[in-house]
Design a protein that fits this description.
alpha+beta, 3 domains
Length: 420
């Protein structure tokens, strides 16, 4: 350790480097480029990862939708083309038979999927908006941010079939005056008056609803619009550690059994698996991170080998000098340590410069992507990854330095002094 802090040691190292400036700089750039590629690609992959997590933060990542369609095969006495209609009872059956399901929210809506939106009036202002019949559990799957002073539908609203509603941020702008408090006021949806109990904010990421969607209790919806036990579609969230694709298959299989559809009929029930889509996106991001690791290490290794080569040349050129040092009493350990230290020094300096350059590029990318509508944010590389890369470079620098160091030690003083 004392040898590392010896002034003469560093004078010799810098003297050796200064004799071959161009060759050293070119070789160092190889290592610098390798760590730069690793930092830049890893940071870019992390930025994509962060961006998609931000987009999906308002919804359960392991969620899916299921709805009824028309059968494509005859079955159990029924003809082809029979319409499958989901029922409230399906919710209990699915929850009891599929333990991997965490939440199920039955929904029914006017204004989407081909149905007409409802005409809504307040005072002299009006508009047509989609109206959703929902249960409170829906917010456990798709988060709804409610402005201060308001709330979402609760269990008492469901039990008493209250005529209350939660309006959207756009509804607020189109039906109310600026700075007017909507909480407690009434709006007319169709021919029925509803009291406003909350206003949901516009979602910034993935959202199952538009910013002008109106929410009313499911029980109120079925009573007013005579929908009975019919359900428009199911929002289902599975636990985070389960196979959401298998859950989707199980759900559709059970629904086919309940509604007497052919088990092989793929068109009886439609679905969209958000968890599967998110998994593919995250898989792509992890693939980019792994690729950056492979490319970066390969480039770093090539650069470190280059450092080993210039040190071998340096040892060859310094044969007489090393012979003099050995003749004056320098031990093989001291000679070996100096060459290895020179190798590690060049490797670490190149690595630090590459990290700084990579961090600068990521910062530039972050500033350029702040205001664009693209799932990309905060491209950074975790500190442990950076420290790990530096540790690898120190190890590689040490290992590659052993070759020229052993070459230097193998030089006999008498032979070195004879060399011209």
């Amino acid at each position: 350790m004392k040898f590392i802090f010896d002034r003469n040691t560093w004078q010799e190292i810098f003297g050796s480097i200064s004799k071959n400036k161009t060759r050293t700089i070119i070789t160092v750039i190889g290592v610098l480029w390798g760590i730069f590629i690793y930092i830049a690609l890893s940071g870019a992959a992390q930025g994509m990862n962060n961006g998609f997590e931000k987009v999906f933060k308002t919804v359960s990542m392991n969620s899916m939708f299921v709805w009824g369609q028309s059968t494509s095969k005859p079955y159990d006495g029924f003809k082809t083309g029979r319409q499958m209609r989901l029922k409230l009872g399906d919710v209990t059956t699915l929850q009891n038979r599929i333990p991997e399901i965490q939440f199920i929210a039955p929904r029914i809506v006017k204004g989407n999927f081909g149905s007409e939106p409802l005409y809504t009036v307040r005072g002299q202002k009006s508009g047509t908006y989609p109206v959703n019949g929902d249960f409170p559990v829906y917010t456990k799957i798709a988060t709804k941010k409610i402005f201060d002073g308001g709330r979402f539908i609760n269990d008492e609203d469901i039990e008493q079939a209250r005529k209350v509603c939660v309006i959207g941020e756009r509804n607020l702008k189109e039906l109310y005056e600026e700075d007017e408090d909507p909480i407690g006021s009434y709006i007319r949806i169709g021919n029925i008056y509803f009291q406003v109990i909350g206003v949901h904010k516009m979602a910034t990421g993935v959202s199952f609803d538009s910013d002008n969607a109106i929410f009313i209790p499911f029980s109120t919806y079925r009573r007013l619009y005579n929908s009975g036990d019919n359900v428009g579609y199911l929002c289902i969230a599975a636990y985070d550690d389960v196979d959401v694709v298998q859950v989707e298959k199980d759900v559709k299989s059970i629904l086919k059994s309940i509604h007497r559809a052919d088990p092989k009929d793929e068109r009886a029930f439609g679905s969209f698996n958000l968890g599967e889509a998110f998994g593919r996106i995250m898989g792509f991001s992890k693939g980019m991170t792994f690729m950056s690791l492979i490319v970066g290490i390969a480039t770093i290794l090539a650069g470190v080998i280059g450092i080993g080569n210039i040190l071998l040349i340096s040892v060859k050129e310094r044969t007489k000098e090393l012979g003099v040092r050995r003749a004056l009493g320098a031990t093989p350990r001291e000679v070996r340590s100096q060459i290895i230290l020179e190798s590690v020094f060049l490797t670490v300096i190149a690595g630090v410069m590459g990290i700084i350059l990579g961090a600068g590029v990521l910062s530039l990318i972050n500033n350029m992507t702040k205001d664009i509508d693209f799932p990309y944010t905060n491209p950074t590389v975790p500190i442990p990854y950076v420290l790990g890369a530096l540790a690898i470079m120190v190890v590689l620098g040490t290992l590659i330095g052993l070759i020229p160091a052993q070459r230097a030690v193998s030089i006999k003083p008498i032979d070195a002094l004879r060399e011209e």
